[in-house]
Design brief:
The complex is a heterodimer of chains A (431) and B (160). Chain A is α+β, with helices and mostly antiparallel strands and 431 residues long. Chain A is built from twelve helices and 19 strands. Chain A folds into two domains: 60-166, Rieske [2Fe-2S] iron-sulphur domain (Rieske Iron-sulfur Protein, 3-layer Sandwich), CATH 2.102.10.10; 190-428, Alpha-Beta Complex (Naphthalene 1,2-dioxygenase Alpha Subunit, Chain A, domain 1). The chains are: A alpha+beta (431), B alpha+beta (160). Chain A binds chain B through residues 112-113, 204-213, 232, 234-235, 238, 285, 288, 290-292, 295, 340, 345, 356, 360-361, 363-364, 367-369, 371, 374-375, 377-379, 381-382, and chain B through 43, 45, 47-48, 51, 53-62, 64-65, 67-69, 71-72, 75-80, 150-157.
C-alpha cells in the first residue's frame, strides 16, 4: 500500500506493522536473572507451554507403582492439561495413554482409580486392551450388509495415543517425546536424591489436593527456592526443624532442570552472620512454644541425619521428606492463572503401626493445612495478584550471583531458579 | 430411646452451633474448650475416607495439639486475611452408646477474603461427632469433618 499523502502526518497510513504482532514480548536483556511477569499471565505463552514443555521433551510424573498394584489397576491423572490413564497390563507392564477414545474423542475413564479388564468407551463401545490397543469396535461390520466401517479399516491403526513410560524407584513418569533421554539419564545427579528416600516398596497413605489461583510456574519455582524456606516459613525455624545455620546443601543435575536441597537437624553452626541476620528475621521467635511438641519428634530412618529433603524435577514434580513425612507433589496447570497441587502421602509396605502413625501425625506439618508450609500457596496467589496484567515488571533473581553456577551448593542462593528459566527459555524458544 | 435423644437434642445442637460461632466471630481459641482434653479433631477428605486411606489434612489428637495449631495460625503462618461463615443443617443424634452420643450434621463454610471481598464456597461436607455430657457441659470426644471435594481452595489455616 502506498502512503496516502495527508497534511496531517499522524493520519498517514503505512499499512500493518508485522513486527509489532510477531514480537509481542521481549525477554529482559539480563537473561535468566530476570523473569518478566508476562510469562506468568499471557494466555498465548500458556498455550505454547502445553506443546513445548508438557507435550515435549520432558518426563512428567503420573503416579506411584503402588497406586496401580494389580493387573487391570488404573489411575487417571494429567500431564499439563491433558487427561491421561496409567494402567497395569496382564504382563504387569505399565502403560500411559491419553484418556480419549480414538474414535470421536470421548473420555474413557471417569474414576480417579479403579480396576478393569479393558478400557471401554461408553459412546460407541470401542474397546481397548490395557496397553491401549483397539480390540473391538461395535458394529464394525454393519448389520445385514449395511453400514459398518470401511473394508480397509485396521484395528491396529486406531489404538489410543500411547506415551513412553518409565518407572524409577516406584515413581512412574511418562513422556509424549520419542527423543528425550531415558528417565534415569534425564534425572542425572538428582536421581540419587530419589534413590535415598525410595529404597523399598511403598504404601499410599492418602491424598491432598490444593487448588491455587496462580500460574503453575509460581509454584514450580517455590521448592527450587531455598532462600525463602526459613524466612517465610516461621514454624520451621522456631521449632528447630531447619535453620539456615544448620548443615545443608543442594544438588543440581548437569542440565540444571532438576534439584534437591537437604538440611540436617541438630547441626547448628554458630556464626556471627546468622546471629546478626536472624535477630531481624520474623521467623526466629523463641517465645513460641508448643504445648505438645511430640508432633515434631522424628526418627532418622535413612541414617544420614537429613531431616528435610525437597527434590524437584522439571517441570511438575516434587518429592519431599519432611522429618518422617513422605510425599510426592504433582503440579497440574489448569489455565494460565490456576493450578492444582496433588500431594500423595506414603510410607513403606513394611512400616509398623507406630511408624505409620508418626508419618500421619507429621502430615499436619505439610500440605494444604500444613503448619510449616501453608504459606507457599498464599505467596503464589499474592504474586499472581501483584503481577496484575503482567504488562510491566520482572522478578530479580541474583541471590548467590548472576550465572548458572554462581551460588555453588549453598541454600542461600537462587541458582536453581536461574537454571529453571535458562531451560524454560530454551524449551519455549524465547530468546 | 427416642425420648432420651430428644432430651439431648438442644444441648447437642447448641454445642455444634457454639463451635461454629467461635470460629466465625474470630474467637477460634475457644473451640478447644468445647472438646475433651484427650479428644480428637480431624478434617479429612471424603476421597480418602471412601478409600480407607488414613491421611487427614488436619488431625489433632488432643485439645493441646489443636491449641498449638491455632497458635501457629496466630503467630507463625502467613496467609491472606479472611473469615468464615458456617451454615449448619441436618443435625441428627443417631445413637447413644455407653454415654457417647453419635451425631451427624451437614456443614457449609463460605470464605470471604478481607482485601477484595471475594466470597467462595470454601468447604462443604458432613460432621461425624461423638459428644459426651460432662459436669462441665457437653464436650466433643471426637469431631470428624469429612469434606466432599477432593480439593482445598488455596489453604486451610483457620480450623473449620
Amino acid at each position: 500500500m502506498q502512503p496516502i499523502s495527508s497534511p496531517n502526518d499522524e493520519a498517514v497510513i503505512h499499512g500493518p506493522s508485522p513486527r509489532k504482532s510477531a514480537a509481542k514480548h521481549t525477554w529482559p536483556t539480563e537473561g535468566y536473572t530476570r523473569a518478566p511477569y508476562w510469562v506468568y499471565t499471557d494466555p498465548d505463552i500458556y498455550a505454547q507451554e502445553q506443546t513445548k514443555i508438557f507435550r515435549s521433551k520432558t518426563w512428567n510424573y503420573v503416579g506411584l507403582e503402588a497406586e496401580v498394584p494389580e493387573v487391570g489397576s488404573f489411575k487417571t491423572t494429567y500431564i499439563g492439561e491433558q487427561s491421561v490413564i496409567l494402567t497395569r497390563a496382564e504382563d504387569y507392564s505399565l502403560h500411559v495413554v491419553v484418556n480419549r477414545c480414538a474414535h470421536r474423542g470421548n473420555m474413557l475413564c471417569r474414576d480417579a482409580f479403579g480396576k478393569v479388564k479393558k478400557l471401554y468407551c461408553v459412546y460407541h463401545a470401542w474397546n481397548y486392551n490395557l496397553k491401549g490397543d483397539l480390540t473391538h469396535a461395535a458394529f464394525s461390520h454393519g448389520i445385514r450388509g449395511e453400514g459398518g466401517l470401511p473394508k480397509d479399516f485396521q484395528l491396529s491403526e486406531h489404538g489410543l495415543h500411547k506415551l513412553r513410560v518409565a518407572s524409577f524407584c516406584g515413581l512412574v513418569f511418562a513422556t509424549f517425546s520419542d527423543d528425550v533421554a531415558p528417565l534415569e539419564e534425564w534425572l542425572g545427579d538428582v536421581a540419587q536424591g530419589i534413590r535415598r528416600v525410595l529404597h523399598k516398596p511403598l504404601k499410599v497413605l492418602g491424598y491432598d489436593t490444593q487448588r491455587i489461583q496462580a500460574n503453575w510456574k509460581t509454584y514450580h519455582e517455590n521448592p527450587r527456592d531455598s532462600y525463602h524456606a526459613n524466612i517465610l516459613h516461621t514454624f520451621y525455624g522456631t521449632f528447630g526443624l531447619s535453620r539456615q545455620s544448620q548443615e545443608s546443601g543442594m544438588t543440581l543435575d548437569e542440565s540444571g532442570r532438576h534439584v534437591y536441597f537437604y538440611t540436617k537437624a541438630g547441626t547448628e553452626k554458630k556464626s556471627e552472620d546468622f546471629d546478626n541476620t536472624s535477630s531481624t528475621l520474623r521467623s526466629v521467635n523463641d517465645d513460641i512454644k508448643l504445648e505438645d511438641p511430640s508432633i515434631l519428634k522424628w526418627r532418622d530412618e535413612f541414617g544420614d541425619g537429613v531431616s528435610v529433603q525437597v527434590l524437584t524435577t522439571y517441570p511438575s514434580f516434587v518429592l519431599h521428606q519432611i522429618a518422617n513425612s513422605l510425599a510426592t507433589r504433582q503440579l497440574i496447570p489448569r489455565g494460565v492463572g490456576e493450578s492444582d497441587l496433588v500431594w500423595t502421602y506414603f510410607g513403606f509396605v513394611d512400616d509398623d503401626e507406630v511408624t505409620t502413625q508418626a508419618r500421619l501425625v507429621q502430615g499436619n506439618l505439610a500440605g494444604s493445612a500444613g503448619m510449616i508450609s501453608v504459606e507457599d500457596a498464599a505467596v503464589c496467589e499474592m504474586m499472581q495478584r501483584a503481577m496484575a496484567d503482567g504488562q510491566s515488571g520482572e522478578s530479580f533473581i541474583e541471590m548467590g550471583g548472576k550465572t548458572l553456577v554462581s551460588g555453588g551448593n549453598t541454600k542461600l542462593s537462587e541458582r536453581a531458579i536461574r537454571n529453571f528459566w535458562h531451560n524454560y527459555r530454551i524449551d519455549m524458544d524465547l530468546p | 430411646m427416642t425420648t432420651t435423644l430428644d432430651t439431648h437434642f438442644r444441648t447437642v445442637e447448641n454445642l455444634i452451633y457454639e463451635w461454629a460461632r467461635h470460629i466465625d466471630e474470630d474467637h477460634v481459641e475457644a473451640i478447644t474448650d468445647l472438646m475433651l482434653e484427650d479428644g480428637r479433631y480431624t478434617v479429612k477428605s471424603r476421597f480418602n475416607h471412601d478409600r480407607d486411606l488414613p491421611m487427614a489434612v488436619i488431625d489433632s489428637h488432643s485439645a493441646a495439639q489443636l491449641r498449638d495449631r491455632i497458635k501457629s495460625m496466630r503467630v507463625a503462618n502467613i496467609y491472606e486475611p479472611h473469615h468464615y461463615r458456617h451454615i449448619l443443617s441436618g443435625i441428627q443424634i443417631l445413637t447413644e452408646e455407653a454415654g457417647v452420643l453419635h451425631v451427624r450434621s451437614n456443614y457449609l463454610v463460605i470464605r470471604t477474603m478481607a482485601l477484595d471481598g471475594d466470597m467462595k464456597i470454601f468447604s462443604t461436607g458432613q460432621c461425624q461427632d461423638q459428644i459426651v455430657l460432662t459436669p462441665d457441659g457437653p464436650k466433643f470426644k471426637r469431631r470428624l469433618f469429612l469434606y466432599d471435594s477432593r480439593i482445598i481452595e488455596t489453604l486451610l489455616v483457620i480450623p473449620i
